[in-house]
Amino acid sequence: MSRACIQKGIGLALIISGVLLLILKSISLPEAKAGWDAWASPGSGTALFAGAFAAELLLIAAQFYLGYLNFRNRCLSPWGFYPLTMLVAVSGVQGIVLAAACLAIRVWPGQGHAAKTERGH
């Protein structure tokens, strides 16, 4: 298999898993809100829920963006790529696996993006 085909597959896997996570999170919103209300002190459950929900949306957005970059074979500077990969890795076990695959593609010998960014291209 070619590098481009593998990279498209990883990008598609990131996008599909992001869609599935978004669907699962939206289905479980009422239960999550009830859990935060029961766990937090009275009156502060909604604020904690909103913060946790915003953090989850940030992780899902990072997964979508990294998937888009891989699928479209876009180059991103190291200052953007590595923090984005870390955000995806923080999202869970599937994020760790997909982020590791993105890192492997990044340092793939040949036409990898790491060679482009190290030389300043």
Give a structural overview.
- The chain has one domain.
- Helices cover 79% and strands 0% of the residues.
- The chain has helices at 3-27, 29-39, 45-71, 78-90, 93-106, 113-118.
- The two termini are 26 Å apart.
- Residues 114-121 have low confidence and may be disordered.
Protein traits:
single chain, 121 residues, mainly alpha, 6 helices, disordered C terminus
List the helices and strands and how they pair.
Blueprint: H1 3-27, H2 29-39, H3 45-71, H4 78-90, H5 93-106, H6 113-118
Helix pairs in contact: 1-3, 1-5, 2-3, 3-4, 4-5
Main sheet properties: none
Query: How many individual helices?
Result: 6
Q: State the share of residues found in helices, binned by percent.
A: over 70%
Number of domains: 1
**Distance between the first and last residues' Cα:** 26 Å
SSE order: HHHHHH
- Taking pLDDT < 50 over at least 5 consecutive residues as the criterion, the unreliable ranges are 114-121
Principal-axes geometry comes out as elongated
- Strand percentage lies at under 5%
The tally of beta strands, per DSSP, is 0
The secondary structure category is mainly alpha
Compute the average pLDDT: 83
Structural Rg: 17 Å
Task: Give a quick rundown of the structure.
Helix content is 79%, strand content 0%. With 121 residues, the protein is an all-alpha fold.
